Amino acid sequence: MNSVSKDINAVKYLINYTLINGIEPSSNTPFSKYSRGYFCTNENIKKYLELVKVEQDTKALSVLASGDHVFNLITKGITNIDTFDINRLSLYIALGLKRAMIIKYNYLKYLEVCQKLTNPFLSLNDLGDIINELLPLMDKKIRKFWQEIISFNYERQKNYQNSTNLFYLLSQNTYGFKKSIRGNIFLENADEYNKLQNKIASVNINFQNNDIMNLPHQKYNIILLSNILTYYESQYQKNFNKEERKIVLQKLENLLKDEGIIFLNYFFENEALKQKEKWQNIKDEGYTYLSIPPLSYLYEEDNVVYKRIK
Question: Which of 22, 46, 184, 262 could form a disulfide with 223 if both were Cys (CB 3.0 to 4.6 A apart)?
Fold first, then answer.
């Protein structure tokens, strides 16, 4: 069985399991190879990327997640990007569905379709119409995935009086799309979106299905790690001490070129202070905390932990 067939079978199982057992609330539960990913960002990526200086040969490494990190890097002019994720679903949502949407739709149409895809009352037929329109713009293997998943989801739910939106079964933070607009450079206005649209089809994006400690042994000017270091600690190193964390930090820093910048972790809203105290010792390794406005108006600040290598 090839990798796409394995992915299809695993996601069919995820859909079926979730329809039977219900959707679990979002939490810091570690991700797996097939788990609910993200449809859109919940970070203020636009704000912390103000620290990034782009040169002609800038090379970036980024977690894939919803794809928004990568799309923002492209909008800023970076065209050589390696990306990774432990969750294979992110490949199909970000570099399959969302990439095709950006190629096909103008700014306002992209926003409109995202609103439809994140609407809990989206019908099975409307979902099928949207996906089928985008299939010709997808890679052959990704196209096969979506064809089979849409068909399976339709057959599984066609007799339900009220079907559950597929993207609520496959994604977290679907309800947060409107807030996510404020966190993305490429969604700021039509001009910024057009920068992304004009480049995305020709950008060199390499995806690896890896976790944070098995990244490619290359050198980068920019590394975006979102908040996966927190997940990594939760999953593998629950009792991280100072020396263990130092080893991890050094391994990640070794991936940076001279004058490179690493965005190590993103701490959300009301968790920021608690997490900042927990991670206080990384300041001893030369890291800086950047306070930025959160996407939610309910809180005062998010915090980004970053470091420049001189």
Answer: 262
Residue 136, φ and ψ in degrees, nearest 5: -60, -20
- pTM confidence score: 0.94
Residue 75 lies in a domain: yes
Give the CATH number, domain containing residue 138.
3.40.50.150
Q: Is residue 29 a part of any domain in this protein?
A: no
pLDDT of residue 166: 96
Rounded distance, CA 10 to CA 17, Å? 10
At residue 189, the pLDDT reads 97
DSSP symbol at 298: T
Check residue 87 and give its pLDDT. Answer: 93
In a domain, 204, yes or no: yes
Name 112's Cβ contacts closer than 8 Å, sequence gap at least 6: 105
Range of the structural domain that residue 162 is part of? 3-22+35-308
SS3 58: coil
CA dist 211 and 163 (Å) reads: 34
Domain count, the chain: 1
How many angstroms separate the most distant Cα atoms in the chain?
61
Residue 158 belongs to a domain? yes
Instruction: Please name the residues in contact with 278: beta carbons below 8 A apart, sequence gap of 6 or more.
Output: none
Could you give the 3-state DSSP secondary structure of residue 180? helix
The neighbour count for residue 30, using CB atoms within 10 Å, is 16
3-state secondary structure 185-232: HHHCCHHHHHHHHHHHCCCEEEEECCCCCCCCCCCEEEEECCCHHHHH
Average pLDDT per block of 10 residues along the chain, 310 residues long:
91 93 63 85 96 91 97 96 94 97 98 96 96 97 98 96 93 87 97 97 91 86 90 64 82 92 89 70 86 85 90
Q: What pLDDT is recorded for position 28?
A: 47
Contact between 298 and 272 (Cβ < 8 Å):
no
Q: What is the pLDDT of residue 277?
A: 72
